[in-house]
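Re: the request from the purification team.
They wanted to know what the chain is likely to look like in 3D before they choose a buffer screen. I agreed to run a prediction and write the result into the notebook, where they can find it.
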Amino acid sequence: MPRISAFYGIVIALFYGDHAPPHFHASYGEFDGCVNIQTLAFMEGSNLPRRAERLVIEWAALHQAELMRDWQKA
């Protein structure tokens, strides 16, 4: 799992050859979630605390184009 970024204890990663739609994984301790890169919405099954979710979405908005390029490469 290539680690893309880490901040405030949150780790952002992309899996090579992962399923559509384009998304990345965010983990915070024992919590995790997937974010759709195109819509910046958490996908079903996220259990990140609300504050961590807000930080992830804020970070993703700043790096959305880079994330899409990374997804296409992966």
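For the purification team: The chain has a mean pLDDT of 94.
Please add any questions underneath this entry.
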